[in-house]
Structure formats: C-alpha cells, structure tokens
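in:
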C-alpha cells in the first residue's frame, strides 16, 4: 500500500539528458528528437546524479516572460535498481511547508500550532530560518531544510561538496539553544535510501559541526521521499548515524 502523495507534479515531458552546463542549464533530447535547453534548478554538483544519457522528466511553463520554458524536474538512475531522483531544489521547502501545515511529520506534529516561513533570526537578525513553529507558552522550534541526493549504497549523505552556508546554518541553530528548539531536516529526494549520515569526505568541517550540533541538542530529522513522475510520496524518517563510514 502506497502513502498519499504530498506533492503532485504537473504533466511532465520525457527526455534524455545530453549535458548540464553553467550550473543552471541542461540540454535535453525529447522523445521527438528535438533538443531543448531546460533550467536546472540545482546549484550543487549533483554528485552521482548528473548522468549523461539517463532518462529525465521536464515540466513546461506557459509563462511567455520566462527565458526558459522547460524545467528539469527529475532523473532516473539505473543502478543498482532504477530510481527517480528529484532535481528541483525549489520543491523541498514547498513540500515541507505543506506537510507542516497538515501536521504530517509525526515527530513535530504535536508540538506547534503556528507555522511561519523565512523568519529572520541569528546574529544581527540577518539570517532567515526556513520554518518557525510555535505554540503559546512553549519554546519555538526553528527548522532548517536541506535537500540531499548523494548516496553511498542505501545511505543518504549531506553535503556532497564543501558548504560554508550549510556550516553557518548549523552554527546558528546551535546558537539559539537552549531557549528555543532547533531541528535540522534533511529532505532525502529519492526513495532508495533508508539511512542518513553527514558527508564528512566532502566537507570535514560540516561533519564536525553536525556532531557538535547533536551534542548541543539540535534534533536531526532525515525525511525519506519516493519520487515518481506522478508525484512525491512521504516514506517517514530514516535512522541516522553521526559520521560517514570509512570506505
């Protein structure tokens, strides 16, 4: 029995990845043989995911003001088993916001009444937390969301490259303790992972801060999602470990 979809894609267009370049651009060959340039809404290196020749799915906008009508939404990897992987990093926060509003994340559901997005916080109030959950006379819960698609077998890993921004977010979550609660939520954007760990081999400092955050009281929520051309299904949370295993 499958779970209800927490996000439903618009009708998607099938194609094959020809190349990705300049970070935000990708050339896709459609089933008709036409090659189109699509927006790649992922600023990272897409380690292990950007596979030339793999099947992809695109959405198409009717907005005449858009420079690129197509958006690259997902890619299908073939090994060890076929799996669709979400590419659009704009979606995780939209999905999590809808889930928070519907109280679909059981670890948080009974702990708040109000959900606010992009709330200023941190030193000099210059940062913005993805979500601030609150309830009268209860400590506020600060929730930061990170998308991840990099894996080692069935182990999801974050980050897949050095991220000073990600390091900063961990420090800021530590700083709000103990007066408030802090949650680092990892959006595992593929359905073939059942565990999570920090990607020490790509960013040693992030791994160190991850363990420091845990010791300080930051909660870790690795949320598993199954991605298909129809939509995104929530699979619940995955167990996590505090460091990437040595290979």
């Amino acid at each position: 029995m499958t779970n209800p979809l927490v996000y439903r894609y618009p009708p998607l267009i099938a194609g094959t990845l020809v190349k990705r370049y300049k970070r935000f651009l990708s050339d896709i060959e459609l089933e008709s043989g036409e090659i189109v340039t699509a927006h790649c809404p992922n600023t990272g290196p897409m380690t292990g995911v950007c596979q030339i020749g793999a099947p992809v799915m695109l959405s198409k906008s009717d907005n005449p003001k858009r420079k690129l009508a197509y958006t690259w939404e997902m890619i299908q990897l073939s090994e060890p088993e076929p799996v669709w992987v979400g590419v659009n990093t704009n979606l995780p926060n939209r999905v999590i916001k809808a889930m928070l509003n519907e109280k679909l994340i059981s670890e948080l559901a009974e702990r708040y009444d109000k959900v606010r997005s992009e709330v200023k916080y941190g030193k000099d109030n210059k940062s913005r937390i993805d979500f601030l959950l609150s309830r009268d006379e209860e400590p506020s819960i600060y929730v930061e969301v990170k998308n991840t698609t990099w894996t080692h077998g069935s182990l999801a890993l974050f980050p897949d490259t050095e991220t000073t921004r990600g390091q900063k977010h961990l420090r800021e979550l530590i700083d709000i303790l103990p007066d408030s609660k802090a949650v680092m939520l990892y959006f595992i954007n593929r359905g073939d992972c059942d565990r999570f760990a920090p990607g020490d081999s790509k960013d040693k400092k992030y791994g160190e801060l991850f363990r420091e955050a845990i010791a300080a009281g930051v909660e870790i929520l690795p949320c598993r999602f199954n991605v298909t051309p129809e939509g995104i299904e929530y699979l619940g949370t995955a167990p996590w470990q505090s460091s990437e295993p040595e290979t």
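note: The two ends are 36 Å apart (CA to CA).
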